[in-house]
Amino acid sequence: MNKKLVSAILCGAMVLGSVMPAAAAGVGEGQKLAMVVKSAGNAFMELAAGAFKETAEAEGATVEIVYPEAPTADAQIKVLDNLISQDFDAIAISANDVNALQAKLQEAMDAGIKVSSFDSAPNPDSRQIFVNQAGTVEVAQALMDAVLDITGGEGQWAILSATSQAANQNAWIDAMKTIMEEDDKYSKLELVEVAYGDDLPDKSTEQTAALLQNYPDLKVICAPTTVGIGAAAKYLQDNGAECKITGLGLPSEMKEYTGDDKACPYFYLWNMEGLGTLTAYTTMAMVAGDITGAAGDTYTAGELGDYEVVEAADGGTEVILGAPMEFNGENIEEWAEIF
Description:
The chain is α/β, with parallel strands linked by helices.
């Protein structure tokens, strides 16, 4: 091949290279992200974490999912201490305590690390944004209406929560109490106790047994925690209890216990994978500088669509995934195949 032809080919290649568009970089290109969940063995956390990792890595980020040894603030503080020293761009966390993580999360932010939260928010001074799975009042209203329906409008009921410091649990419980106090249609309901199973199956089972023993006329237990509702449903059904359960659960874990003739007539939850996906896009947008976490910020979360940052009830800011979904005897089989 003569030199002129070689030169022409090379020039042509250079021209083509200059006009062909480069592959678009993902929104998370080059970012180093960490997600800190509540604890290991929590199926809800695992679904959200899996979606977070898949979404962020598809956008070019490097992701580390960290599972604390126990569902406690101390365990999360140890994890955060280790992460801060590893030069992460952002940390997304589901807080085991609303206030106890503040010093460590402020240390992270002071080090230039973006801090987002999901599922359970630390206080506003401990985060830059909260990704809320569903509006607090909307969740509380759905749960209160379920209690009203299942009790027949009157009688004793109890709450089986996660930990006493879980921000999301406490927000829902406080909103439920407010709803019950402000509307006369709930006046014949008696909330006898708020028990805590610490998001541990064994302790949640023990608390369920204690509630039945202490309140023989108990009609409904409401468990706004996936671990608690599963443990309570199994105990109630295995022991043929007349008391029913409702709350927030995973369809795959509640299939055996859900239906009109089962321990749980129906329950609620949201799209856990969607929560992980939205948390990923929100966190990447923070790192990229597309949003700051201030109310009024807008961004696009992939196929989930457009979102706006709004004021949260605790004085911070949040984005809200959507409304809670009802799972019952008619749709439980279908949804159990999904999550």
